[in-house]
Amino acid sequence: MAKIKFTKGELKRQRDSLKQFLRYLPTLQLKKQQLQLEILQQNTALQNAEQSLESKRQGVLVWAGLLSEAQEDFHSFVKPDKTVTHFKNIAGVDVPVFDALEFSEKDYDLFLFPLWVDSAIKSLRELAGLHKKIDTLRQGLDVLRRELRVTTQRVNLFEKVKIPQAEENIRLIKIYIGDQMANAVGRSKIAKKKIEEMVLEGAMS
User: Fold this and answer.
1) Is 53 in a helix, a strand, or coil?
2) Residue 2 maps to a domain
3) What confidence tier does 195 reach under pLDDT thresholds 50, 70, 90?
């Protein structure tokens, strides 16, 4: 712990610091709560997306073998051109949010491709969208968890170090100043008594 000066100026500085810590702590605590709540919500969204992905994957597996009937490279129909995302601000932190995958429309020969191709393309694009949504949710959770760690460290610093330290410094300075004042009063009384004694002796001689 840094050495403190036992002065009235230092007492004021410690009191001002304590006021600042006590004013800032509730903001940090609120931020911590908001981050914890958002992490819970994002975890729920991630679990739901993973369940949807598994359900969709099982549905695709039923007819995935039919893709060999397609005469062209089927991958080109389900490769996204663009990922659309935006950011939302959570307690001062920008978190990515998945919006959609954009695909360019490709023509194919209706005589060469089987009738189920349109449904297959739609399902595979939904599958790709779910993959990207899950990736984005995981990125967001990483951002939120890092920020929660930093915020929790700051809350602990204020609650367990800064505030108790300032309170203890104020207590010690007040005791020291009180003792100094008491000593000064005592010295003043002794000096006054000596002066009175000298005056009395002078009057008697």
Assistant:
1) helix
2) no
3) low
pLDDT greater than 70 at residue 66: no
Could you tell me the two tokens for 53? Answer: 């992905």
Whole-prediction pTM value?
A: 0.79
Q: Which two tokens stand for residue 5?
A: 């000066």
Counting the structural domains of the chain, the total is 1
Phi, psi of 135 (to 5 degrees): -60, -45
Closest CA to 46 of 141, 134, 140: 134
Domain that holds residue 59: 20-160
- Whichever domain contains 116, its CATH number is 1.10.287.3240
Residue 139, pLDDT score: 97
**CA nearest to 63, candidates 113, 124, 18:** 124
Half-sphere exposure for 148 (CA within 13 Å, toward CB): 16
Does an H or E element contain 94, and which? strand 93-102
